[in-house]
Amino acid sequence: MRRLAVLTSGGDAPGMNAAIRAVVEEGLHHEVDIIGVQHGFKGLVEGDYLPLGINHVSQSIRRGGTLLYSARFPEFRELDMQKKAVDQMTQAGIEGLIVIGGDGSFQGALALTKLGFPAVGIPATIDNDIPGTEYTIGFDSAMSAATTAIDNISDTAASHNRTFVIEVMGRNAGDIAIWAGVATGADAILIPEEEFFMGDIVRRVRSSRSHGKDHGIIVLAEGVMGVEEFVKEYAKEAPEQDVRGVNLSHIQRGGSPTGRDRVFATLMGAKAVDLILHGQSGIYLGISSEELAVFDIVETLEKNEHKVRDDLFELNQALTDRY
Ligand code: ADP
Ligand code: F6P
């Protein structure tokens, strides 16, 4: 029987389990053994294998996190480690690897391809920051979790007529901030891709209040600055406001994946198996105009940058720029 392996790497993301499940189901469909590698590239080097059956993935489509565990393992940049991983897989009769993770993990997949070992990537990170694809698995769930949390904060903010600054994740990308900010009608959204002026942020919240809104909501992407520091600076410029800061932190990364993340994960998991069985390698899957698309790892990651949805950011700017 042919044999493929699958691993999850980097920050976990809701929907990773749905992708693993699709890999296992598609493997069974093609009579291919699927070996789960636990703890990302670390497990790949150590041969930490778990042969996967339906029993492992049953009900996993609706579970957050990753049943294969994830790890950050910087040592995998070293050629020795990569060769060890290839040896382990070759000895175990594995003929291809599916890597579910972010762009860092794709570099690991590429390194294996360069050593002649076939590897295909599935983009999964809540940050949505991978060039080429419009969506990454986990982003929709994280953005929805942030939206629900901001809604909850808005209830208490309104009851006390307070201004809340809410820090969301995203590493160097502003995607979660933009989408959750638009989804909650935030007075201001701050992202690392756009410069901001404190006076302008204060003006937007004040104008909201003067038009009758009973509280203020500022959504701050972690890539801009930490919420504590921001609140200190903001409070100096807006002494009339009762300001509080909240960091949503890892709350955004857990929980049941949204339907959208489950569907994309299922599409990509099944396709990854088909592509690798047809001899494709050094590529990753993604979504372009709602359709499944295939990207070359080297070409796309080297020549493209991730772009945030400027149109949504500008929409929010326009909506909160009152007379
Ligand atoms: P993400 O995949 O979410 O971007 P990281 O950047 O932390 O997360 O990368 C995850 C893992 O991928 C790293 O811990 C390491 O094992 C592997 N990796 C990252 N960059 C490289 C690289 N240049 N070469 C080989 N492996 C890499
Ligand atoms: O890449 C996902 C992510 O959650 C980022 O948004 C965040 O900057 C980072 O991982 C946090 O990493 P850790 O969980 O290792 O602190």
TrEMBL record:
Subcellular location: Cytoplasm
The encoding gene: pfkA
Reaction(s) catalysed (UniProt annotation): beta-D-fructose 6-phosphate + ATP = beta-D-fructose 1,6-bisphosphate + ADP + H(+)
Chain ranges of the Phosphofructokinase domain: 3-276
Protein species of origin: Facklamia languida CCUG 37842
Pathway: Carbohydrate degradation; glycolysis; D-glyceraldehyde 3-phosphate and glycerone phosphate from D-glucose: step 3/4
Binding site for Mg(2+): 103
Residues annotated to bind ADP: 185-187, 213-215
GO-annotated biological processes: canonical glycolysis; fructose 1,6-bisphosphate metabolic process; fructose 6-phosphate metabolic process
NCBIfam families in the cross-refs: PRK03202.1 (NF002872)
A Pfam short name: PFK
GO cellular component terms given for this protein: 6-phosphofructokinase complex
Required co-factors: Mg(2+)
Entry binding sites for substrate: 125-127, 162, 169-171, 222, 244, 250-253
EC number: 2.7.1.11
The protein's name in its UniProt record: ATP-dependent 6-phosphofructokinase
InterPro entries on file: ATP_PFK, ATP_PFK_prok-type, PFKA_ATP_prok, Phosphofructokinase_CS, Phosphofructokinase_dom, PKF_sf
Positions of ATP binding: 11, 72-73, 102-105
Purpose of the protein: Catalyzes the phosphorylation of D-fructose 6-phosphate to fructose 1,6-bisphosphate by ATP, the first committing step of glycolysis.
Class of enzymatic activity (EC top level): transferase
Main localization of the protein described in the UniProt heading: cytoplasm
Listed SUPFAM superfamilies: Phosphofructokinase (SSF53784)
Active site: 127 (proton acceptor)
An example Gene Ontology molecular-function term: monosaccharide binding
